[in-house]
Design a protein that fits this description.
449 residues, mainly alpha, MdtK-like, transmembrane helix
Length: 449
């Protein structure tokens, strides 16, 4: 990688990626706060948040990913100087979000049946289902926030999203404290309090971002809210055609962790709790390469829209190289800090020991995970989204989940590995995904017209 390429692309990419990282860390921080604060109450509450989050997060990412089609649409329109269509695009994305949140809400309200089918222990299943019903009240706010967020990020204005996400986290923590532990005259709700606190934080963030977009001078030129656009089936279908493969590919990856957590649910509350602690901590560190991948979507999309195809390829591969270096640092930190970090989540020694050993395993897939998410992000900048869904479906489910289940639950060559077998499967699945997505990016970036 030449010094000229570094100077040309490093600063613009980081100026976009760092606010995105801050926003993701703040939003993920709500999940971390839920996990830590519920874990300090009891292992059952921690396990309930674990199984509840394992259902909610993939569905939330399905919504996020589908609406993420807004980002490359806005970025390419902005790169081509065609800003007149932004108002219609944003409002049609809003109508699209309604089609997505309705089935998500139905699944959340039917979650007890899912937990029972997966043989999750009854106390954890009951509490987890109640947690999901509470958090479902925030779904409309999540949809509004995500549409406006994608618009801001597509226009290279990620800082407001960062500040508002931090504000949401700062509200979520005291709300958690009041509702989980029953302070200030409120009833002691435990894990269910986490759900209500998160839903209220979602509404707070959506209101703030809506007010910002409405009053900020920069957005007045786009006339986003000046003219009402009713739902257009043609435009909604176009957004879904581009966005659903994004949402489904992200959902496939996230649901891999969901199904693993539900399989583990029958292994007991301490195993579930330890698995959740490890997953929560590694997921927090994953926000760094994820933010770089989202920045790549915007920067590559902008260059493609402006017909600067050689520059788009340079940006894509520079971003992946940067993600590789970040993953090396992340792996080293995880290796050193695992024993210390798990003590923040739970005072239970059994939970701590299991979580620390799983984090040590996660060190081995940090590089492949960073590469695959950034290759996918660059491909989305080219609007090459459907192939990502197929690649991730094969890698995560056929290699990661099926292989992990075989290692964990069957009397194989090494004997049933329990929870560790699923984590071995994760290493294999993410590595295969990284290899195939890199091949696809190399091909797409060379032949794109």
């Amino acid at each position: 990688m030449s010094l000229a390429i570094f100077k040309q692309h490093n600063k613009p990419l980081l100026l976009l990626a760092l606010p995105l990282l801050g926003a993701h860390l703040a939003q993920t921080g709500m999940s971390v706060a839920d996990t830590i604060m519920a874990g300090r109450l009891s292992a059952v509450d921690l396990a309930a948040v674990a199984v509840g989050s394992s259902v909610f997060m993939p569905l939330l990412l399905l919504l996020f990913g589908t609406l993420m089609a807004t980002t490359p649409l806005v970025a390419q329109a902005n790169g081509a100087g065609n800003t007149s269509i932004l108002s219609r695009t944003i409002q049609q994305a809003g109508w699209t979000s309604l089609l997505v949140i309705l089935p998500i809400a139905l699944i959340l309200y039917s979650s007890r049946a899912i937990f029972d089918f997966m043989s999750v222990t009854p106390p954890v299943a009951a509490l987890g289902a109640a947690y999901l019903k509470a958090i479902a009240w925030g779904l409309p706010a999540v949809a509004v926030f995500q549409v406006l967020r994608c618009m801001c990020e597509g226009l290279n204005h990620a800082r407001p999203v960062l500040l508002i996400s931090v504000a949401g986290l700062l509200l979520n923590i005291p709300l958690n404290y009041v509702l989980i532990y029953g302070e200030l005259g409120f009833p002691k709700l435990g894990a269910v309090g986490c759900g209500y606190a998160t839903a209220m934080s979602f509404w707070f963030m959506a209101a703030l971002l809506g007010l910002y977009v409405h009053f900020e001078k920069h957005y007045r030129n786009f006339a986003i809210f000046n003219v009402f656009h009713g739902p257009s089936l043609k435009e909604i279908a176009a957004i879904l055609w581009l966005g659903l493969p994004i949402g489904l590919s992200i959902f496939v990856e996230a649901s891999l962790f969901t199904v693993i957590t539900l399989f583990i649910g029958e292994m007991g509350r301490f195993t579930v709790a330890g698995h959740q602690v490890a997953l929560n901590f590694t997921g927090l560190l994953f926000m760094v390469p994820l933010s770089l991948g989202l920045a790549l979507t915007v920067k590559v999309g902008h260059a493609v829209g402006a017909k600067r195809l050689a520059e788009a390829r340079e940006i894509a591969f520079y971003g992946i190289g940067l993600a590789f270096l970040v993953a090396l640092v992340s792996s080293l930190f995880m290796w050193i800090a695992a024993d210390w970090v798990v003590k923040l989540y739970s005072p239970n020694q059994q939970v701590q020991l299991l979580a620390a050993s799983l984090i040590q395993l996660a060190v081995w897939y940090q590089i492949s995970d960073a590469i695959q998410i950034n290759a996918a992000g660059a491909l989305r900048g080219y609007k090459d989204t459907r192939i990502i869904m197929l690649i991730t479906l094969f890698s995560y489910w056929m290699i990661g989940l099926a292989g992990g289940w075989w290692l964990a639950m069957t009397d194989n060559f090494w004997g049933a590995q329990g929870v560790y077998g699923f984590w071995y499967g994760l290493i294999a699945g993410l590595s295969v995904a990284a290899a195939i997505l890199m091949w696809r990016l190399n091909y797409t970036s060379r032949v794109h017209p």
